[in-house]
Amino acid sequence: MTLATQTRAMGEETAPERPALLEFRNIRIVYDDAIEAIRDVSIAVPEGGIVALLGSNGAGKSTLLKAMSGILHTEEGAIENGAVRFRNDEVHRLAPDELVRRGIVQVPEGRRVFPALTIEENLQMGGYTRSKAEARERRDKVFALFPRLFERREQIAGYMSGGEQQMLAIGRALMTDPVLLALDEPSLGLAPLIIDRIYEVIVRLRSEMKMTVLLVEQNAQRALDIADYAYILETGRVVLDGTAQKLSANEDVREFYLGVSSSGRKSLRDVKHYKRRKRWLS
Predict the structure, then answer these.
(1) Of 79, 76, 73, 75, which Cα lies nearest the Cα of 27?
(2) In what order do the strands lie in the sheet with 77-86?
(3) Between the chain's N and C termini, which has fewer beta carbons within 10 Å?
């Protein structure tokens, strides 16, 4: 599917085309010079939308984010073919700090806050590339999005709950004033009510702050509920893509990712063995 087709499909059929802010072009990624993790993947993230990357563990979702963020080398990974383009510039050879300055910011899986620092100090660390006035303005916006962080701003981050740490990790990323925010498994290990709050904020980032969001999730239903467009990855390849509405109605997606089929909701045992029957892997 071409980018023009994709951007027309996002939202209403009559919506104007949106330019690609971020593109993975025919990316091939290998670990340790031997293990192929990503094979000829092309993905476009239009400006101002939410694009979801869906798939099971090991599908290659997080590897793409690491390539985008310039940290593949920390795990002996390398891009052997293709390019990552941001605002029409190739950026996959840039250092992580330069990528952040350009507006590409990732919230990694597992939160990874600074546990010995307070909430306030964690946010200050996130705003280190900004002036003091800009950092104060960004901090106030973060507190408006996450009132709980304001209430507990003097608390040591290591003593916070998992949900509070996820809020802080997102808030710290927002301190950089990102153009594109990538979220790696933001719902992982969180209670449903906290997930609701996190996803409400993601929607607000798009609708109120006009931010572009790249969302990596195993929870396909949650992601499709808010995404404009989605890609499904399996074994390092894109096997299906389309608007969130289209994928939510797709029979295979409903059965293998949402646990629902024409005969009703599938049992966990049935869903665990889906790979043997996936038509797109045959």
Answers:
(1) 79
(2) 35-46, 20-31, 77-86, 89-90
(3) C
Domains of the chain in start order, with CATH, are 3-103+178-246 (3.40.50.300), 109-172 (no CATH)
Handedness of CA 224, 226, 230, 235 (dihedral sign): negative
CA 172 to chain centre: 16
Nearest to 270 by CA among 281, 258, 279: 258
| Tokens 């705003």, residue located | 127
- Say which amino acid occupies 281: L
Find where tokens 């609701």 sit.
196
Contact 205, 221 (CB under 8 A): no
How does pLDDT run across 93-127, given as a tens digit for each residue?
A: 999 999 999 999 999 887 789 999 999 999 999 98
Render pLDDT for 259-279 as a digit per residue (tens, 0 to 9). 765 555 554 455 444 444 555
Tokens of 5: 């087709």
pTM of the model: 0.84
